[in-house]
Give the backbone structure.
Amino acid sequence: MLRVCCKIEITRSWIQESGADALTVWNIDRVANVSITGDSDTLADTCRVELPRNAKWIGSGNVPIRRGDDVVVWLGYNEKLDKRFVGKVREVSAGTPTVITCEDMMFVLRQKSIKKKLYRKCEVGALLKDILPAGIKYETSGKIEIGDYRTTATTVAGELALLYDNCHIKSFFELNEKGAPVLYVYSIFAKERNVSGTFATSKNVISHNLEYRRADDVRIRVKGVSSFLNGKKIEYSEGDGDERTINYYNLNMAQLKVAVKNELKRLKWDGLNGTFETFGKPVVRKMDVLDLEIEGVTPARYQVKAVNVDFGQNGYRQKIELQRKVLNNE
């Protein structure tokens, strides 16, 4: 018999009047509900913790948790826990039940201001080294060159959002093999960082909203627009159907054509599209790959776009949204 269990650790550190470091830790092992959202199309993952209505705090009885406190969430079955979220408290409700809303380490980057600066022949890794605060680890999908680039946002998170809007370069935090948060920045396709397991209708797919689609049935036209620091723009389009415009920064025509073709490849493929629900294990994270066996459809490997976790009295579930089919030659 599987029994759901959790551990939530909330920590606050400060410096005492004596100059010594001080630390307060709150451990929570009973909740009404935990929901975690993770999507590769958004900068930040979020976590919502709802405590039982009868929860009591030692001491004054008032909720001691504050905005900016550190949060780590483990979820699992039968005391075998997996780290599912690392971040900061964003908000604490004043009513009953207590609801603690958290954001991953992008919370820190929203607070970190940056200065406007012009980079000649900018490489994204060098840019990140300049703008990220100390202690934030990062990784990129190889060497990403974006030509001349000027930072214009007021915060690090704001600049990461502009990198996506202007250069189609995405950023998000992931947990590495040691469970530490790492900022991952990539262009076009993210790495396939982990094969999370096999999911089948006869085994561990609880329900699904999946539909089979053929590449030829996907009618879409991708228009790539490359902008330069001097205000000049060049365009290249390919495909047919509804137009989707993708903005890039400082790509020449040859590079722009490759980028547009890659985007079409990402959007047009034969296979399943949609969402399915499974149990809390095996753990699936955004951008993982998984093997999917749905009755009546040829088994195939897919990359994950988003994972929404729901944990509580009704069990432990993951709702998984597919990103794309992984081709045999990838």
About this structure: The chain has a mean pLDDT of 90. The longest strand covers residues 80-92.
